[in-house]
Amino acid sequence: DAGVIQSPRHEVTEMGQEVTLRCKPISGHDYLFWYRQTMMRGLELLIYFNNNVPIDDSGMPEDRFSAKMPNASFSTLKIQPSEPRDSAVYFCASSPEGLNTEAFFGQGTRLTVV
Amino acid sequence: GENVEQHPSTLSVQEGDSAVIKCTYSDSASNYFPWYKQELGKGPQLIIDIRSNVGEKKDQRIAVTLNKTAKHFSLHITETQPEDSAVYFCAAYSWGKFQFGAGTQVVVTP
Question: What phi, psi does B52 have (nearest 5°)?
Answer without folding.
Answer: -70, -10
